[in-house]
Each structure stands twice: as structure tokens, then as C-alpha cells.
Design a protein that fits this description.
heterodimer, A: 2 helices, B: alpha+beta, 13 strands, binds protoporphyrin IX containing FE, binds iron/sulfur cluster
């Protein structure tokens, strides 16, 4: 079965923090406001919609989703 | 002042019609001229499409932050005129911007903001205590106005007793300063003296005994082994104090205006408090309070516009937030809008440093108001007064319950 993964491009991320609010179990931000995926970015079943919401609300287009 | 008839070639952001209902002007422009211009107050361009505004915000090489005021009085006469004192990081370009911002980021990150959430709740409740028995209040001047200034004064480490002075500076410098520079200069001088004194007092306290606040952070900060200059410390204090006052006050005020004027949304938010997260983002998108500006340092042809050195470009984030190419039903307020890539806090390297703080303040101010004040409505719609320019929001907002 395909595994959905989220990725953050730290070069693009400006710390708007929208992803963390929408999907706190997938993302966290560090002290400088830069977002990182939690763990290996694998989206647990049931959280796919949250992952897509994070993508759709990031004003910097810093989040992407892949299926592997 | 002559009245604007041609918004594409001669717009005026201080025109009362623009202050009251900018969205209808943006939508009129989008079809005919996505980058409007004017020579009022010196030559200025006004993009109204999301993608164009985002592109400018990311192109810091061709669009400088050295003058971010939407209007700089006397610029037509003196192209080097600026209204602001140097206020790093907002008036800085890289490389100074990078370290000036980095130094402040941790103090405004999510965990630092969690720590001031209870303070904000107390401030909100104290204000509501003062009006709840009356059955009516001015939601702008009795409530919204006081929340951000009280919280940031505490974070900076300056006395709350000076609240009225801080608010006066914000109004005189950031609002009235657009048209009355002499008045603004007096306040800027007062502010420089004030923060110079506060910084000196703080340096006089032995290290280790200084309170953990932003003033201490600034006087102890070092860059390449050197302390910050007084000018930098004062400029950053100026920015941190003033950037959050009328901006957040406007965001809270506009949101309360919306709830008073739209009883169905008020009822829905009361019945479904879990909508607060999307509601806050929609308030920020729909009533985006802040328009910034950029300075054009070299001639450039951009999106077909011959921009010349010394021109200004407005960062019309509020217009981009109504762009139908970016948002479904862009001119409709949708309280549960799930896909909302708004940029009310800007885009790119100058993303509002205070965005986590502002969001928290907006959310807490609305939560406490809805929790304690019963269903409320506009007491007199004609008495509502909006201000505009750099920051748009209601300044008088009589409501009753
Ligand atoms: C709803 C309230 C607020 C809105 C809509 C807002 C909006 C903005 C915007 C659009 C920018 C980008 C400026 C640019 O691109 O030139 C900005 C920058 C900034 N804001 Fe806010 N702001 C708000 C509240 C606050 C608060 C509470 C603070 C607290 C101190 C603050 C501090 C700053 C600072 C320091 C910058 C400069 C960041 C930099 O240049 O790197 N703002 N704000
Ligand atoms: S929403 Fe985008 S810009 Fe904001 S923290 Fe997340 S990844 Fe970074």
C-alpha cells in the first residue's frame, strides 16, 4: 500500500506556523520558527486530510506530499 | 485633495471610499489594471493580485524595505525622505535583516507565546469586567485597543502606566504621520528619549539580576562579539512596541464588528467553538489590517510597469487576500474556510515576527468576549468609524447586549 509522506523545504519555510496548528502530529517548529516534519514524515492512516490541509494553507508553498 | 475618479491611474488610499470599502475597488481594478498607479504623495504602484504581491515580497533585491510607509510625506520634494526611524528588522534588507530578525525570533516562537497566553486572558477579562454590567461598550476603544499594548508592554519590560503614551505614539506616528509629519516627528523624538532611558536603566542593573524580557534581550545581544548600537536597540524597541498595537487592535476590532453585524456567524461560532481556528484565519484574510510598502532602488520593468528608482510599491496584502484566482468566493466571508493560504502577515523573509503573538491575542480576545458577553449587536451602525492607510480597522465601535 502506498505510504503518504510530508516534506518541508526549510529554504522556503518562513515560520508562519500554519502547518503545526493544522497538523500538530505531523509538524513542529523550532525556536527560530522553522518547520520540520516529525519523525520520518510518514502520515499515519486517518491523517491524510490534515496533511493536505497543511499543504493548502502554507503561504510559502514549503510543504509537499509524496506517495511511496 | 481632489477626489479620485480613475482608480487605475490616480488611486488614493486615503480616499474615504477606499477606507470604507477597499474590496470593491480592488475587484474593479483586477479586470482592467492589476497594478494601479498614482503620483499623489510621490509615484506609487499598487498591485492587487496575490501572485504579483508574493513575487515582490520575495524579490528583496529589486524591492527594498528601507522605506515601508505607504505614504512618506514630502517624498515628492525630497526623494530620500523617510518617515520611520531605522527599525530593524522591518526596515532592513539582508544581510542586516537576517541577524536582526534571528536575534528576536525565539522570543516570538510558539513556546514563548504560550507563556503569555494567561497574561492575555487576564487582560481581556479585566477589560470585560469594566463594561459587562453596562450592557454596552465601545468594542474598539474600551476593549480591542488595550489588549495588544498591555501584553507587549509586559513582554518588553516597560511600565504599564505608560500605556496611554504608547497608544498615542502609535496613532500619531503610524496613522496621523502619513499626512502630518511635523506632529509625528515630535512623538518620534519622545520615543527615542524614552527607550534610550529604559535601555540605560537596564544596563545599570547587574547582569544576572535583569528581568527576562525583551529589553534585557536587546541590551545583552551581541553581534560578532559587539553589543548592539543604541540606535539599533531603540529602533527595535520602537518596532516591537508599535508594530503590534494598532495592527492587532484593528484585527480584534474588525472581527468583533463582523460578529456584531453578522448574527448568523456570531451564533455559529458560539454554538461551534471548534470553528475558532478557521474563523481566526478567515478574519485575518477578510479584514487584513496591514498594507506595507517597498522602495524601488533601481529602475526596473515589472509586470509591464516602468518602475523607476525612488518609486514606492504598496504591499497590498489585503487585496491579494481577496484575489479570486487564489480563493474560492474570495469576497465572501466563510467562517469554516478550510483552504486559506492568506498572507495577512506578509510573505517571505519579513513574515510578521509577531504573527504567533497576534494570532493568540486575536483568538483569546474573541474567546473571552464570546464567553462573557451575551449576544451583541451594533448599537448604531452609523457611529462606527474606520481608519485606513497603513492599517485598517474600526476605531469607534459601539455595541450593546
Ligand atoms: C493582526 C496583527 C498583525 C498583522 C496583520 C501584522 C502584519 C504584518 C505584516 C504584513 C508584516 C510584513 C511586513 C513587510 O512585509 O514589510 C509584519 C512584520 C512585522 N510585524 Fe506584524 N502584524 C501584526 C501584529 C504584530 C505584533 C503583535 C507584533 C509584535 C511585536 C508584530 C511585529 C512585527 C515585526 C517585528 C515585523 C517585522 C518582521 C521583519 O521585518 O522581519 N506584528 N507584520
Ligand atoms: S506553514 Fe509553511 S511557512 Fe509556515 S511553518 Fe509551516 S511550512 Fe513553514
Amino acid at each position: 500500500m502506498a505510504v503518504m509522506r510530508v516534506h518541508v523545504d526549510q529554504e522556503k519555510c518562513q515560520g508562519h506556523n500554519r502547518c503545526v496548528v493544522l497538523a500538530p502530529s505531523l509538524f513542529h517548529v523550532d525556536d527560530l520558527g522553522t518547520a520540520w516534519v516529525i519523525g520520518d514524515g510518514r502520515v499515519p492512516p486517518g491523517q491524510e486530510a490534515d496533511a493536505r490541509l497543511a499543504v493548502d494553507n502554507c503561504p510559502e508553498y514549503a510543504i509537499t506530499i509524496t506517495d511511496d | 485633495m481632489s477626489t479620485t475618479t480613475d482608480w487605475a491611474a490616480d488611486f488614493d488610499i486615503l480616499d474615504p471610499r477606499y477606507i470604507l470599502d477597499p474590496a470593491s475597488i480592488w475587484s474593479q481594478l483586477r479586470g482592467v489594471c492589476p497594478v494601479a498607479q498614482t503620483t499623489r504623495y510621490g509615484r506609487t504602484w499598487m498591485p492587487v493580485e496575490y501572485e504579483v504581491i508574493a513575487k515582490i515580497a520575495h524579490d528583496v533585491e529589486h524591492f527594498s524595505s528601507r522605506d515601508i510607509a505607504v505614504i512618506t510625506p514630502n517624498r515628492e520634494l525630497d526623494p530620500t525622505a523617510t518617515i520611520m526611524l531605522e527599525a530593524p528588522p522591518i526596515t532592513s534588507d539582508p544581510p542586516v535583516h537576517t541577524w536582526a530578525r534571528r536575534l528576536l525570533l525565539p522570543a516570538f516562537g510558539p513556546s514563548a507565546i504560550d507563556a503569555v497566553t494567561p497574561v492575555t486572558r487576564d487582560v481581556a477579562n479585566g477589560l470585560i469586567d469594566g463594561v459587562i454590567e453596562r450592557g454596552e461598550a465601545d468594542a474598539a476603544s474600551d476593549y480591542a485597543q488595550h489588549v495588544p499594548v498591555r501584553v507587549i508592554a509586559q513582554m518588553l519590560g516597560v511600565p504599564l502606566d505608560d500605556e496611554e503614551t504608547f497608544t498615542r505614539w502609535a496613532v500619531v506616528i503610524l496613522q496621523e504621520g502619513l499626512t502630518n509629519i511635523n506632529h509625528a516627528i515630535g512623538s518620534v523624538m519622545e520615543l527615542i528619549t524614552y527607550f534610550g532611558e529604559r535601555a540605560a536603566e537596564r544596563r545599570a542593573v547587574p547582569p544576572g539580576e535583569r528581568p527576562a524580557d525583551l529589553l534585557t534581550l536587546l541590551v545583552e545581544a551581541e553581534v560578532d562579539g559587539e553589543p548592539l548600537t543604541d540606535r539599533h536597540v531603540i529602533g527595535s524597541c520602537f518596532l516591537l512596541l508599535l508594530a503590534g498595537i494598532d495592527t492587532t487592535w484593528s484585527a480584534i476590532g474588525s472581527s468583533l464588528w463582523h460578529l456584531a453585524a453578522n448574527p448568523e456567524d456570531q451564533a455559529r461560532l458560539r454554538a461551534e467553538p471548534e470553528l475558532m481556528t478557521t474563523a481566526v484565519e478567515e478574519f485575518l484574510r477578510f479584514y487584513s489590517p496591514v498594507t506595507m510598502a517597498r522602495y524601488v532602488p533601481e529602475d526596473i520593468d515589472f509586470e509591464g510597469c516602468p518602475m523607476r528608482k525612488g518609486d514606492k510599491v504598496l504591499m497590498t496584502f489585503p487585496a491579494g487576500n481577496r484575489d479570486p484566482k487564489m480563493f474560492e468566493d474570495a469576497d465572501k466571508f466563510v467562517i469554516d474556510r478550510a483552504r486559506n493560504r492568506h498572507f495577512a502577515f506578509g510573505s517571505g523573509i519579513h513574515r510578521c515576527l509577531g504573527s504567533n503573538l497576534a494570532r493568540m491575542e486575536l483568538r483569546v480576545a474573541l474567546e473571552e468576549w464570546l464567553r462573557r458577553v451575551p449576544t451583541f449587536e451594533l448599537a448604531d451602525p452609523d457611529a462606527v468609524v474606520w481608519t485606513g492607510g497603513q492599517v485598517r480597522g474600526p476605531r469607534r465601535l459601539p455595541v450593546r447586549w
